[in-house]
Design a protein that fits this description.
Number of helices: 12
Largest sheet: 3 strands, antiparallel
CATH architecture of the largest domain: Orthogonal Bundle
Structural class: mainly alpha
CATH topology of the largest domain: Ribonuclease iii, N-terminal Endonuclease Domain, Chain A
CATH class of the largest domain: Mainly Alpha
Strand content: 5-15%
Mean pLDDT: 88
Order of helices and strands: HHHHHHHHHHHEEEH
Distance between the termini: 46 Å
Radius of gyration: 20 Å
CATH superfamily of the largest domain: Ribonuclease III domain
Oligomer: single chain
Low-confidence stretches: none
Length: about 230
């Protein structure tokens, strides 16, 4: 717990709040009667806290932008991929409490579980230290300038950009292959990859084939753009 608190930059007065943010529903279900509650209620609250903090931040940072643009930027800032990245930076996966089945199914690295846990932690900080403590954490791990620049990259249509790059290089066969689909029907994770002629690029993940293909296209673009710069 101390390691996680150090990464959060926040020390809990009530350690049980932080612990509660790490209880996945699968773990709570396996320990019924033990007074353990899943982090779903905290996730609900954390989503609201995150929504308010991010809206307030964007409203003050971008005084010239209309409501539609603010809404789109906020959606990109607080999307699952962004929250998943925060969870990875905090090492949340190492601290999650999962049921045996979820553990064996790779739940510790599943983007949706980690994103939900991130919101739960935001709520735990809010309940323990108030809105300013939650605001400080959210600003530090999610809303700084570098994240806004990352959002602009995330909003790109990577498949179109990749198609245009491949066409500019001449005749190459570009296709997407589905590598795997795992998880329950309501929370599937898809893995796709880009294949250029006979070259298979690194895979990308998402909660739909379309999202996974966009992620794979992004990975392929980064590799091809680096190769263009280095002259490979």
């Amino acid at each position: 717990m101390r390691t996680l608190e150090e990464k959060l930059g926040y020390t809990f007065k009530n350690k049980n709040l932080l612990l509660g943010a790490l209880y996945h529903s699968s773990y709570a279900n396996e320990h019924r009667g033990g007074g353990i509650e899943s982090n779903e209620r905290l996730e609900f609250l954390g989503d609201a806290v995150l929504g308010l903090v991010s809206a307030d931040f964007l409203y003050k940072e971008h005084r010239d932008l209309p409501e539609g643009d603010l809404t789109r930027i906020r959606a990109a800032l607080v999307c699952e991929e962004s929250l998943y990245e925060v969870a990875q930076s905090l090492g949340l996966g190492d601290h999650l409490k999962l049921g045996k089945g979820e553990e064996l199914g790779g739940g510790r690295t599943r983007p949706s579980i980690l994103a939900d846990a991130t919101e739960s932690v935001f709520a735990a900080v809010y309940l323990d230290g108030g809105m300013e403590s939650a605001r400080s954490l959210i600003h530090r791990v999610l809303l700084e300038k570098e994240k806004e620049e990352a959002v602009e990259k995330r909003r790109r249509d990577y498949k179109t950009a990749l198609q245009e790059l491949v066409q500019s290089r001449g005749e190459q066969d570009l296709r997407y292959e589905l590598l795997s689909a795992s998880g329950p029907d309501h929370d599937k994770t898809f893995t796709c990859c880009v294949v250029l002629d006979e070259r298979t690029m690194p895979g990308g993940i998402g909660h739909s084939k379309k999202e996974a293909e966009q992620s794979a296209a992004r990975a392929a673009l980064e590799i091809l753009e680096k190769e263009s710069i280095s002259g490979e």
